[in-house]
Amino acid sequence: MNQQRIVIVGAGIVGLSAAYALLKQGITQVTVLEQETVDHVRGTSHGLSRLLRFEYGADLLYSEMVRLSLHRWQALEHLAQRTLYTQTGILVLGRENDSYTKASYHILRELGLTTQRLSQHYCQEHFPQFNTQPYDMLTYNAEAGLLHASTCLRALKGLILKLGGKIYEAQRVERILHAQQHQPIRLVCKSGNEITADRVIVAAGPWVHHLLGELQLPVRLTRQYILYFTDLPLSSFQLHVFPAFMAEDLYGFPIYSTCAGSGPSWLKAASHAFGAPVDPDEVAAVDNYIIEQTLQKLIELIPAIRDAKLAQIESCMYDVSPDEDFILDHHPDDPRIIFGTGLTGHGFKFGPLLGELLSSIVLNTQPAVPLERFRLARFAATRSIHTTSVA
């Protein structure tokens, strides 16, 4: 297997992590093709920060996967000699009957994590920035934090090159030709280059339909927005004073110098609610109605935002599966092609683990976690329904 040529399409967090996982296992011919550049601004992995939280309701598997992923991030941090993860703690504001907050609390306690249930009085004393009155289930987990997303991508790129892998930028793959299974797979690039491979991993994010359109994957693409606020007092909103937070569909981060955009005092917040369908190659105008809705909910949660300045709005994309689980599998007609999609806005934190899982499919080795839940076949009965909404 070491002599097989493995080509990975997409240099986001999943593609780079898969390349690193293969190289680390001694696979020597690993090539990554990226349509633009590593960490380009349209990529779903680009950005200043991503939330690493353990809370997944009653879903034990994902909480366990977060723990496995954090260990891998810490190992990468040591190897790269760069800060990839910063612990912030996370405050979850929920309700007793929301089926998420209490369930998360009990799962995390079962896993031995240091999550606490907080009283209203404690919250008002220690986190007065939040309006806690609408919530009756408040938890705090000190082990959560943020990943420095763009730094993570650059660190992985450096490690891949150091291990002898190849990364070719400005190589947009337009077609994957694999009809003759006794012949190598051919990847035809927009540049005119044609690359052959024995195995291909497609980790193309929102561009997955361009390459695997024949599969009619049940993945819809949505437009999301991230808001950055300035003119908030550091004394109340900086790291170790203000935690990362989740409240219904809202989430956000403390002000922190290396993840605060183009200024040292920006607070980042967003809604995880899935947005409108999007074409990944279109430059869409900002939907001011969605921004205003999100802004009003944030002001209700964090009243000081009313007097803050909305300094920047960033657009990003989600690739959303119907059940919000990942899809990690072989091409049903050609097992030489493997793909990872349906990250649904929560995949970045699992990057190194997802890379390992895809490499285990390529190499036919034992995965770190069972893969049955992530197989494409789970949608066999409903695929024709969901593909009608694919952008």
From TrEMBL:
Gene3D superfamilies recorded: D-Amino Acid Oxidase, subunit A, domain 2, FAD/NAD(P)-binding domain
Cofactor(s) in the UniProt record: FAD
Database matches in InterPro entries: FAD-dep_OxRdtase (IPR006076), FAD/NAD-bd_sf (IPR036188), MTOX (IPR045170)
Superkingdom, natural source: Bacteria
GO MF terms held by the record: flavin adenine dinucleotide binding; sarcosine oxidase activity
FAD dependent oxidoreductase domain: residues covered: 5-359
Keywords noted in UniProt: FAD, Flavoprotein, Oxidoreductase
PANTHER family to which the protein is assigned, alphabetical: PEROXISOMAL SARCOSINE OXIDASE
Protein name (database record): FAD-dependent oxidoreductase
Organism expressing this protein natively: Ktedonosporobacter rubrisoli
Lineage: Bacteria, Bacillati, Chloroflexota, Ktedonobacteria, Ktedonobacterales
